[in-house]
Specification:
Blueprint lengths: L8 E4 L2 E2 L2 E2 L1 H12 L6 E5 L2 H9 L4 E6 L8 H15 L3 E5 L2 H14 L3 E5 L1 E5 L2 E8 L4 E6 L6 E5 L16 E6 L29 E5 L6 H5 L1 H8 L2 E4 L1 H5 L20 E5 L5 H7 L4 E6 L12 E4 L2 H15 L1
Parallel strand pairs: 1-4, 1-6, 4-5, 5-12, 6-11, 7-11, 13-14, 13-15, 15-16, 16-17
Antiparallel strand pairs: 2-3, 8-9, 9-10
């Protein structure tokens, strides 16, 4: 394979209501850091999202059109991205490390007979390849992964791993509308009905401050008291897996390997022991404050500040002191 023919990078843009997800705009910036002379091309089903991606650094964009894209289907989207990657001879394809993005990555890679990496937290050029850094063993080790011998290199990138570029309002960039049809035999499942989950107000991936409660809060009533602290700090409310499983709050708030991967500037954990599955979802946080009555709790190993005490006793004291400060 003549690698010099493969230069451009496709960035799949996730979005809703005409607004791209913040992590997708971060991925545009990530792509620019390893473009190596190629173009960064945004791929979206929404023209408004494509225009915003260009303002944040993409050189141009494809807007995918067709009746098959009116309702999201991973098989349909993966096939469309694979078609575009083959058309432009893409060196790499990046998605967000969201449930949708991580679902797309292996599908795209399989269609193009190439390799893929999920949950990338860093990358750099390594000769003619990209060297991807990705956490393994629950985030305890960072592994370097290189996809050799094939193109494109397909990866999903975690939110918070790369900052967004400063937007250039009104920046011009070519937007090409692509009418794409996906063959019936390439679609392995059909979406018969969609039930909308109320998650619009739960944007953990882009939150700058997250307050999270675990089983150590003791009850749903105690857990809900964290909302007052969230209001004071302008924070989003998160939870550990046991809290969701107890039915105290919806799964949209869950942080961890089986929930959402977050990287806020400030992460405050009340009554969370620090199981490796939870820590893997928040280890990228800028500053971590942990409150737990067990001084041997693993959460203290990753915390910048640890408070040994009953979470339900510390919470009102913290609220009182923040009110004084404000």
């Amino acid at each position: 394979m003549a690698f010099e023919e493969y230069k451009d990078i496709l960035v799949v843009i996730e979005g809703a209501d005409g607004k791209p997800a913040g992590v997708s705009l971060e991925n545009v910036n990530a792509a620019k850091s390893v473009a190596n002379g190629g173009k960064v091309i945004a791929v979206s089903t929404c023209e408004a999202c494509a225009k915003t991606a260009i303002e944040f650094g993409a050189d141009c964009a494809f807007v995918v059109e067709g009746a098959q894209f009116e309702v999201y289907n991973a098989d349909v989207m993966a096939d469309a991205v694979a078609q575009l990657a083959g058309e432009v001879k893409a060196a790499a394809v990046f998605t967000a490390a969201t449930p949708k993005g991580k679902d797309l990555v292996p599908r795209i890679a399989a269609k193009l007979a190439t390799g893929c990496v999920n949950d990338v937290t860093g990358m750099e050029l390594d000769g003619e390849n990209i060297k991807f850094a990705t956490p393994v063993y629950g985030g305890g080790i960072i592994s370097d992964v290189v996809i050799e011998g094939s193109r494109p290199q397909v990866a999903s990138i975690r939110s918070g791993s790369f900052g967004k570029a400063e937007p250039e309002a009104g920046k011009a960039g070519e937007i090409v509308k692509k009418a794409i049809t996906v063959a019936d035999d390439a679609i392995k499942f059909q979406v018969k009905d969609a039930v909308e989950e109320i998650t619009d107000a739960v944007n953990l991936e882009e939150a700058e401050v997250i307050v999270t409660g675990g089983r150590g809060m003791g009850s749903k009533e105690n857990y809900e008291k964290l909302n007052e602290l969230c209001d004071l700090l302008g924070a989003q409310l998160g939870c550990s897996r046991p809290v969701y499983e107890e039915g105290w709050i919806s799964r949209a708030h869950q942080v961890g390997q089986s929930g959402k991967i977050v990287a806020p500037k400030l992460y405050i954990a009340f009554g969370i022991s620090g199981a490796i599955q939870h820590v893997a979802g928040m280890i990228g946080s800028g500053y971590i404050v942990a409150i737990n009555k067990d001084e041997e709790a693993p959460i203290f190993d990753v915390a910048d500040v640890g408070i040994v005490g009953n979470a339900n006793e510390v919470l009102p004291l913290m609220i009182e002191e923040i009110k004084k400060f404000k």
